[in-house]
Design goal:
Elements: E1 10-14, H1 17-31, E2 39-43, H2 46-51, H3 55-67, E3 69-72, H4 80-85, H5 95-103, E4 106-111, E5 128-133, E6 142-146, E7 149-156, E8 162-170, E9 174-178, H6 183-200, E10 204-208, H7 216-239, E11 243-247, H8 248-257, E12 262-266, H9 268-282, E13 288-293, E14 299-303, H10 309-316, H11 326-343, H12 346-364, E15 367-368, H13 370-373, E16 384-385, H14 388-396
Parallel strand pairs: 1-2, 1-3, 3-14, 5-12, 10-11, 10-12, 15-16
Antiparallel strand pairs: 4-5, 4-13, 6-9, 7-8, 13-14
Bound molecules: nicotinamide-adenine-dinucleotide.
């Protein structure tokens, strides 16, 4: 059978440890036999980031902007221990953080639903997609210790006039924190969420705590409402989906009672916490996909998990590990499908769908990696634990 041709290359960002090993195997066993794979390759492995003074991360992000679609392997974000382990020149920043900043994107995380792996919340039948604003709030905050005295918030405008507000008169020791966001970033976040919901044909819920944080969270609410009215209301009505704003405590209660099938837009911290809660409730971090979408329509697909270090050390000792490759495979299929959509190559989209179907069928027929075995419950099917390579071969038999 002739291989499927690609028109435009994908930007391929390689990574670290166990996911780097799986990356090669996924290409060899599941993609290259069927697709004449065209990629522009960037090695974001920690060794090469160190060698290039992290230049490769910037180049890869620029290539993502140029071509529109990238697929990224999990990468190490170095801490002190990694600086010693890899003998690094310095503690390089998180590549995901760098790429997010350059793309000005919003991260959407969605679970991969498979028959036999029941979420801990049994009413959840469809995916709940968490859209996390990836800028500002506590992640860019200035905080510090306070002693007896006054903490103040001062804003100096460009003419030098000051607005000064007392945060607290401290009678003793305490802590203070000042955070910010920009309207530009909130607007990008809003548009990314509305576009994603339209694309996925799913309703969009947005939550903050504007009853308490009247100005800060109130601005988020106002910007979403204005952009919705002006740019998206008609399209939402035509597509038959709703946009709803409500308080975060209300959404938490509604989500637990829902059957899923919702995009839930969250501020930065809420999204950080809620996406881990949702991922765990759906069963496994290794069954969670993640895509970074920029307001100008640039996409970067990846798995939501890390480099699975524990398995990598076993692999280095020569042991065959049972590391779950599903989220990384779905990063590839997501990217190939988007590339196919943008280039009008229907056979590439169809192949991505076929591969996703094969992954799901393999698990549904009882063949899976170790992390899923304990979660799998399907009458008449006894789960069989395979190592990663056996699992990839079992998928290949079903493509
Ligand atoms: N997107 C990214 O690039 C990304 C995200 C998170 C962590 N990291 C990096 O990954 C490294 C390891 O971090 P961590 O241990 O916190 O996160 P991790 O996601 O690698 O592992 C967390 C836990 O989940 C399990 N797990 C995760 N994915 C799995 C899979 N595919 N199959 C089976 N089990 C799986 C692991 O065994 C571990 O117990 C760190 O260096 C960190 O910087 C990268």
């Amino acid at each position: 059978m002739a291989k499927i041709r690609m028109k435009t290359p994908l930007v391929e960002m390689d990574g670290d440890e166990m996911t780097r090993i799986l990356w090669q195997k996924i290409k060899e066993i599941l993609i290259e036999p069927y697709v004449e794979l065209k990629t522009e390759y960037y090695d974001l492995g920690l060794k090469n980031r160190d060698k290039t003074d992290d230049g490769v991360t910037y180049e890869a992000a620029q290539a993502n902007l140029k071509y529109g679609v990238a697929v990224k392997c999990a990468t190490i974000t170095p801490n002190l221990q990694r600086v010693e382990e890899y003998n690094l020149k310095k503690m390089w920043k998180s590549p995901n953080g760098t790429i997010r900043q350059i793309l000005d994107g919003t991260v959407f995380r969605a679970p991969i639903i498979v028959d036999g792996i029941t979420p801990y919340i049994p009413t959840w039948k469809k995916p709940i997609v968490i859209a996390r604003h990836a800028y500002g709030d506590i992640y860019r905050a200035v905080d510090g210790a306070a002693g007896k005295g006054r903490a103040e918030l001062v804003f100096t405008d460009r003419n030098g006039s000051e607005i000064r507000e007392t945060v607290h008169d401290f009678a003793g020791d305490g802590v203070v924190c000042a955070m910010h966001n920009t309207n530009k970033s909130i607007e990008s976040f809003a548009r990314a969420c509305f576009n994603y919901a339209l694309d996925a044909k799913l309703p969009l819920w947005f939550s903050t705590k504007d009853t308490i944080s009247k100005v800060y969270d109130g601005e988020f609410k106002k910007i979403f409402a204005e952009i919705y009215e002006k740019e998206y209301k008609e399209k939402f009505e035509q597509t038959g989906i709703e946009y709803m704003y409500t308080l975060i405590d209300d959404v938490v209660a509604r989500i637990v009672r829902s059957e899923g099938g919702i995009v839930w837009a969250c501020k930065n911290y809420d999204g950080d916490v809620m996406s881990d809660m949702v991922a765990t409730a759906y069963g496994s971090l290794a069954m969670m996909t993640s895509v970074l979408v920029s307001p100008s329509g640039v996409y970067e697909y990846e798995a939501a998990h890390g480099t699975v270090t524990r398995h990598y050390y076993k692999y280095l000792k020569g042991e065959a590990t049972s590391t779950n490759p599903v989220a990384t495979i779905f990063a590839w299929t997501g990217a190939l499908k988007k590339r196919g959509e943008l280039d009008g190559t229907a056979d590439l989209c169809a192949f991505a769908d076929r591969l996703e179907g094969a992954v799901k069928r393999t698990i549904e027929e009882g063949f899976m990696t170790g992390d899923l075995v304990a979660l799998f419950k399907k009458p008449g099917v006894t789960p069989v634990k395979l190592n990663s390579e056996e699992f990839l071969q079992a998928i290949a038999e079903r493509v």
